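Incident review: delayed structure delivery

Summary: a single-chain prediction request sat in the queue longer than the usual turnaround. Root cause was a stuck worker, restarted by the on-call engineer. No data loss occurred. The affected request and its eventual output are reproduced below so the record is complete for anyone auditing the incident later.

Affected input:
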Amino acid sequence: MSNKVKFVIDGKECQSDEGKYLVEAAKDNGVYIPTLCNYEGLKPKGSCRICTVKINGRLATACTSPVHEGMKIENYTAELNEVRKEIIELLFVSGNHFCPACEKSGNCELQALGYRYEMMAPRFPFAFPIREVDASYPRIIKEQNRCILCKRCMRGIKDEDGKSYFAYKNRGKDSLVVADRKLMSAMSPDKAKEAMEICPVGSILVREKGWDEPIGTRKYDNAPIGSEIENK
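Output delivered after worker restart:
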């Protein structure tokens, strides 16, 4: 049986199982800490840095930090919110994100975070990288222009033998997430749908699916991201 520990987030006294990752422990207490690379059921990586908080005065990623007795956490502060906003802006300018034409619009976590942190025009120059849309797979389309390299598909979409359908190609600014063609040839419709859903943006799309949710019924049309945690 897990030991319960007490900790404080932005002055709010919280309680959770000792060793539970802070993002999940905060969620249990009605506190939203934003993430992009984190996904329920997957081992956290802390690669996107959106969940950066201050723990006892030091910066740390909430998705990889276990909670302990007496921790004091700063989450919703002007400083941290500005850091998150900068990261969101950098993700937008480093790819080619045209939200009105994206099939994931309204269900996109990056777009939703942009709204939550009141991003208007990014302060950084757009990179406008030249990236191809890979439509050579039988079940999915890989839209490289929208990929934010979060690794969620690489960590979460695997076959029965534990082999990942997706992997990195190249390094640095030339990094791409590509798919294993042999595994893709045997990908089921359900696995393709799972891949599309695990992607936080519109980089993995099920072929011939398109826009199947009317505006007004999409996940983030009527409530900001995180509100389902804060309002429960």
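Verification: The chain has a mean pLDDT of 94.
Action items: add queue-age alerting; document worker restart procedure.
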